[in-house]
Amino acid sequence: MSPLLAISTDFLTASGFWIGVGILAGVYGIFTLGLQLNVGYTGILNFGQAGFMAIGAYSAVILVVSVGLPFLLALPISMLITMTVGLLVGLPALRLRADYLAIATIAFAEVVRITIQNSDSLTGGNQGTISLELDNNRIFSQAWFDVSDWISLNVFDQIGLTGPDYINLPLLAVAWLTLIVLAFGLSRLVRSPWGRVLRAVREDEDAARALGKNAFSYKLQSLAIAAGLGGIAGWFLVLNLQSVNQTSFEPIFTFFGYLILVLGGLASFAGVLVGTIVLWTVLEGLRFLDLPLDGGQVAALRFIIVGLVLILLVAFRPQGALGKKEEMVLSD
Amino acid sequence: MTEAVATHSPAPTAPGDRGPMLEVEAVHKHFGGIQAVRGASFAVKRGSITALIGPNGAGKTTLFNIVTGFYRPDSGRILYDGSSIYGQRPYRIARRGMVRTFQITKALAAMTVIDNMMLAGAGQPGEHLLTLLARPLASRRRESEVRERAMGLLATFNLERKADDYAGTLSGGQRKLLELARALMPEPRMVLLDEPMAGINPTLGRRLLQHMEELRERDGVTFLFVEHDMDVVMNHSDEVVVMGQGETILVGTPDEVRADERVIDAYLGGGAPAESGEETGRLAEGSPPQENKPDAR
Hints:
The structure holds two protein chains of two kinds.
Chain A: E1 6-7, H1 10-13, H2 15-42, H3 49-67, H4 71-93, H5 98-118, H6 120-123, H7 142-156, H8 169-190, H9 193-203, H10 205-210, H11 215-241, H12 251-264, H13 269-285, E2 289-290, H14 295-316, H15 325-330
Antiparallel strand pairs in A: 1-2
Helix pairs in contact in A: 2-8, 2-9, 2-11, 2-12, 2-13, 3-4, 3-5, 3-11, 4-11, 8-13, 12-13, 13-14
Chain B: H1 3-7, E1 22-31, E2 34-44, E3 49-53, H2 60-67, E4 75-80, E5 83-84, H3 90-95, E6 98-100, H4 113-120, H5 129-134, H6 136-156, H7 172-184, E7 190-194, H8 202-219, E8 222-226, H9 230-236, E9 239-244, E10 247-252, H10 254-259, H11 261-269, H12 277-286
Parallel strand pairs in B: 3-8, 3-9, 6-7, 7-8
Antiparallel strand pairs in B: 1-2, 1-4, 4-5, 9-10
Helix pairs in contact in B: 4-7, 11-12
């Protein structure tokens, strides 16, 4: 009989699997950078990040597959669309205070997702997978495949990482490079005079207004940038899955983002990197738990353990891995 | 500190130079059924220190919020430096050189003291995303100017050793000083203080008053402040505006105000008919919120 609790050693050698986990961590890291900017630095509770991710993913795919734009032109336009939607959502929603804003944004994200679900001709509806349709020989990821092959050939093959296990290594590398560059840029940005106004808005909007700062405009900018980051995460999601489906944009994914925020700590972009690694390692690593349970039970157990980790964290280190305790205690 | 005058665009003007700094005419504001301000009219002379007094619930803070754009008035006229600021947004009014503080101090707690100060510095191109990215050097240059001014002001208010502490760790009195110092960062032409003396010890209070008088003398800054401490009002203001029940009852010098019966009525009687004045007066003193439900009209 197998022991009650055992961990199979497969997980150490399953490099293909862990590369996949790393990509997920990268994608949701980029996704959460936007949430960090909103929640940690501007004090706005954006619960619609999955909606922006959906718009980024679908607009890029539609621009390439349906419209026929080249990949590299589709991306900036997709970015523009996503950020514009961020502004349009923000214009009414950011006039609401904290929890009402959260409700409005989660509603927005669901409107986006359900619209996608029902627009069969444009998005493939429930079937999704529009990026794989080969009509007109337009394949969303074609340009990426070329880049990916080049990276494999010139970088990873050189150091002996070849074979089917490592096929996604270039995506891992590019996703994490993007994440790190964006995190670095954003941490510089929030330390700039612009970021100082953002933090002032987080602390007290009225005080910022009384000092001549247009608080609303800063909240709009923050939300639009977060939307753009969600869009980038959306592109990577499509490249990873090689398809796109509305179920990837359910509200639970925004909550994953918040989990990452809490794990890594508020008001720290480096914390997002830590948080996303911890979350996805725990969440996916638990698949290797060898228990006398059926699949459904193991799946449930994974979330129970993640919940437990979260409870322990909030009890013993409420500021998260890299958050500043002072900022948490002092801001009220 | 001396560059304060030099770098600011409009030269400070002597009192009485070009009409009043602030004119409020027949301003009204109601919240639901309560007429919080009903016909406030007064002028604040250029370079003066003007006190705004009145019993609790007289509408002083509401009027402050109206003048600084935080509340939209129902009707009336508000002129600042000769042009209308009626119904403008708070940040626009602030950018025109009218800065306020709040009754409940708004120190930005999870930001450092120096960040609090530098935030208030005006004319920072780096506060706009595009100019920040396009002209990082201009932003950095302005940043060091602003830092220098901030440290100067912090030194004036004996807060320079606290520069790198979180504002949330300061004492109540220190927060008041920080808020005033912060209000002075953008080189304002008019400062509105909502109960600056409340909750700070007399020594700090005297220093605050000293600063106000210095700034008025040197830079021609105009002050309007709400205050309950009558010693402060009578000894440190040029003019006093008295409010009661949402109206301005009287505008005059401290001596005039001291001698005026209407003022005493306002404080003791809450504007009620004179014969019942004594009775309601006690009530009003003890339970301030009652005064705001006037006349049951």
